[in-house]
Amino acid sequence: MQTEIKFAGFGGQGILLSAKLLAYAAMKQGFQVAWIPSYGPEMRGGTAYCTVVISDKLIGSPIIKSPTHLVAMNRPSLEKFDDTIKPGGIVFINASLIPVRSQRKDVVELVVPVNDIAIEAGSVRAANIVALAAFAAKSKLVDLDLLKKCVKEEFAAKAKIIPLNMDAFDRGVAAAQA
Amino acid sequence: MAKVLMKGNEAIGEAAIRAGCLNYFAYPITPQSEVAEYLSKRLPEVGGVFLQGESEVAVGYMLFGASGAGERVMTTSSSPGISLMSEAISYIAGAECPAVFVNIMRGGPGLGGILPSQGDYFQATKGGGHGDYHLLVLAPDGVQEAVEMTMQAFGLAEKYRNPVMVMGDGMIGQMMEPVEFPDDLKTEPTNKDDWASNGMSTRKSKKKNLVKSLFLDPAELNQHNLNLKAKYEQMKKEDVQYELYNADGDYQILIASYGTMSRVCRTAIDMLKAEGIEAAMFRPKTLFPFPEKQVHDAALKETCKCVISIEMSMGQMVEDVQRCVMGKKPVEFYGECGGEIPSPEKIMEIVKELIG
Fold it and tell me: Are B183 and B153 in contact (CB under 8 A)?
């Protein structure tokens, strides 16, 4: 069983970090993982996206044209990748920045205003953690407690922002379950 | 040790330290700059030397100097940077010094692009610099193998007193995978007192060592080249590495591929198998010495109708495959380059077309 998750948004939204944290938690849980960036000649503020592959066997091709799920943090990302998601996959939409919805009838939409939730938690910069937590709660790909521990570990060197990110995480999980 | 999640470039840097390399000189270039970034922080922590040269040309000769003085040394670069280092690589091979070069390939020719490619196969295996020399070339297919091969490279370089190249590509450099650093891959540095310019006071022998690639006497130079050739023949006997995948059954086609490309082929082979089509893969892990007999024998399997080399290039390794198969089976080619990578679906389509 192999699952691929495309994370996409603006550069600076913390997309690559959210993806890394998911991969890290999955690794800790015993899965094979790969974190595959779509690097290119991008400028600051340009698009950023990457794919996380989680599998119970050795991961082959790092070229993923049709991922299982999408986490779209901005409108161009949704419009660009909506078509590519496998039927039955989750299309996560950051409703704070995306006024439109998926054009697909065969995917599961998860619509969460992550920027607004992050602002309520204390800082818009935690939007990526809200999104990660909400997506993880919906997709059930990894254990939520383990993932939360990984988030905490990631910010170990910046102890001051741990409470913010822990709060953002809980709010993300709650939003997905609402 | 528990597995850690690391970017290929950072893992290569850590692997060098774990292998006992405390000298790293480099000049930044995408898509391998994270190696330098990582080692600029890590090497001072372990008492090593990180030095950013003024150019790749200078870096190549810094490696020559350090290895000539008997030190373990590595650089990393990407395609255009390796071209600039090629003169020094020829000198290092000529002077029989061990050194490790990592090429995280990007698209070419010229400045090309920054995305993954396999366009430097000829450069790595057939020359690059001038003169009759070869590098021992290792080609990892992912982050774990990049770690293992980087660690092995130092021992191999010293075994042969010859530069070793680890050939990755932008995908391997940029992607993150779980890795371990196997302690048993660390080799003890060989004693270099009989050849290195490592300082008279540091060794018992009072023989004056001279590290050089200049031999003006034709007979002496001829003999020097014969000695080098004997090393390359020894590599072919002792250090060929390869993998065969799905090759136990009655396969109809043999896919030759290496590095990132081989992972895509592996997925395509699994997908073909699910449809009842048997394809096998031949993956050289050493590009030089090339696993000549192994690809020949795999191609000659009775049920195998043809061989196809699939590369992120316009057709380079295919020439070695053709050479080894010796016309006994048809050898086809498919490639994309510049950052385009053939997809598993495309490979399936090509295979189906070929075997009818």
Answer: no
What is the spatial distance between Cα B212 and Cα B8, in angstroms, rounded to a whole number? 35
- Mean pLDDT calculated for residue range A92-118: 98
Which are the contacts of B232, defined by CB distance < 8 A and separation ≥ 6? B134, B289
Kindly report the nearest CA distance between residue A16 and chain B, in angstroms. 11
Dist. CA A150–CA A84, nearest whole Å: 29
A50 and A22 Cβ atoms separated by less than 8 Å:
no
Task: Write the CATH number for A135.
Answer: 3.40.920.10
What pLDDT is recorded for position B356?
Answer: 84
Q: What distance in Å separates the CA atoms of residue B74 and residue A175, rounded to the nearest whole number?
A: 50
CB atoms within 10 A of CB B40: 16
To which H or E segment does residue A37 belong? Answer: strand A32-37
What is the complex's ipTM, to 2 decimals?
0.94
Nearest Cα residue to A144 out of A22, A19, A55, A16: A22
Tell me the CATH number for domain B242-355.
3.40.50.920
CA distance A72 to A91: 7
Domain B4-238 has CATH 3.40.50.970: yes
Q: What is the pLDDT of residue B1?
A: 62
How many residue pairs bridge chain A and chain B with CB atoms within 8 Å of each other? Answer: 61
Residue ranges in chain B whose pLDDT is less than 70: 1
Q: Is A20 on the interface with B (CB under 8 A)?
A: yes
Cα B145 from chain centroid (whole Å): 11
Q: How far is A151 from chain B (nearest CA, A)?
A: 14
Decide: pTM greater than 0.90: yes
What confidence score (pLDDT) does residue A94 get?
A: 98
